[in-house]
Write a structure and sequence with these properties.
Blueprint: E1 2-6, H1 15-22, E2 27-31, H2 45-58, E3 62-66, H3 78-97, E4 102-105, H4 115-130, E5 138-142, H5 155-164, E6 171-176, H6 177-182, H7 190-203, E7 209-214, E8 216-217, E9 228-229, H8 240-244, E10 253-256, H9 266-293
Parallel strand pairs: 1-2, 1-10, 2-3, 3-4, 4-5, 5-6, 6-7, 7-10
Antiparallel strand pairs: 8-9
Helix pairs in contact: 1-2, 4-5
């Protein structure tokens, strides 16, 4: 696996590589513009070139771009939908320029008017965004905690979007550990994770799993509330090892999105690697017990 974090692009997007290198990560996630403003950031060619060059120097194996928080392709408000599409297109275009591997986004919320109607709303927009993908760059839907009418609270909703888009081969999924937990998947339990992954495989195919967001939770299992906590400091705790160590996730980038008050350091990336090692040991022990019982 590749381990990293979401870091700031302040002062120029290429600074994100400097920041992730400084804390020992080999994967990075970044906003291509302010996450709370519609106006896209204009990156000059020198900055984009420096990003590409520094990535190679720092041996950063995976680059993810996260769409801004305002995006809602399912909104009842036509203006919001239009702004969301423009913002996502801008993120996709910058992601192509820096040779990123994925753009991760939240589909949005149907706000109670129903998933089926929302599906008809979001499909044309996503079809146009998928035209900007490349053999390297994927568009990745993120699962959600399930609050209100947010889309992606279960695999069935993500699979329905995929089917509506003809199973586009560069439409991927980003799994967030906190969101999975909050939506009812016990990421601390190996059998529960196995069952959830089987569901992904049966409904979408495991090849669509492209990246992981690793966050602890400040809410109880199944609470349907999106409340992140710093890794190993929340209610999931060391149980995150079971999630991180699952063999299905090997070779994927795993990035932190929740920061300690004192800021990210090498200790935070080391903690990810520790949990991964612990998880692999747990997975091996569980496999051994299964073989013995057979």
């Amino acid at each position: 696996m590749f381990f990293g974090a979401h870091v700031s692009a302040a002062g120029g997007i290429s600074n994100a590589i400097d920041r992730i290198e400084a804390i020992g990560g080999d994967a990075v996630q970044v906003f291509t513009q302010s996450p709370r403003m519609w106006k896209p950031t204009a990156h000059n060619e020198e900055e984009l070139e420096r990003f590409r060059g520094r990535r190679k120097e720092a041996k950063v194996e995976a680059v993810l771009c996260h769409a801004l928080y305002l995006v809602d392709l399912a909104s009842r408000d036509r203006d919001i939908r239009k702004k969301s599409l423009v913002a996502l297109r801008a993120t996709m275009e910058t992601a192509r320029e820096i040779e990123a591997d994925a753009v991760v986004f939240h589909v949005g919320s149907h706000q109670g008017y129903g998933f089926k109607d929302a599906l008809r709303t979001v499909t044309p927009a996503l079809a146009s965004l998928l035209e900007l993908t490349t053999d390297r760059l994927w568009l990745c839907m993120e699962n959600t905690a399930g609050a209100g009418g947010t889309i992606g609270r279960d695999v069935a909703e993500l699979a329905a979007i995929c089917a509506a888009l003809g199973g586009h081969r560069r439409l991927g999924v980003c799994l967030d550990s906190c969101h999975w937990w909050a939506s009812g998947v016990d990421v601390t339990d190996g059998e529960a994770v196995d069952a959830a992954i089987r569901e992904v495989d049966e409904q979408m195919g495991l090849e669509r799993l492209r990246c992981l967001h690793v966050n602890d939770a400040a809410v109880a299992l199944g609470a349907n509330r999106d409340r992140h906590e710093v890794v190993a400091r929340g209610l999931i705790g060391d149980g995150l090892a079971t999630f991180l160590g699952h063999p299905t996730f090997r070779d994927l980038p795993a990035v932190l999105e929740t920061w300690p008050e004192e800021g990210l350091t090498t200790k935070d990336i080391d903690e990810l690697r520790r949990l991964h090692r612990l998880g692999k040991r747990r997975a091996a022990a569980r496999s051994k017990r299964s073989l013995q019982s057979d």
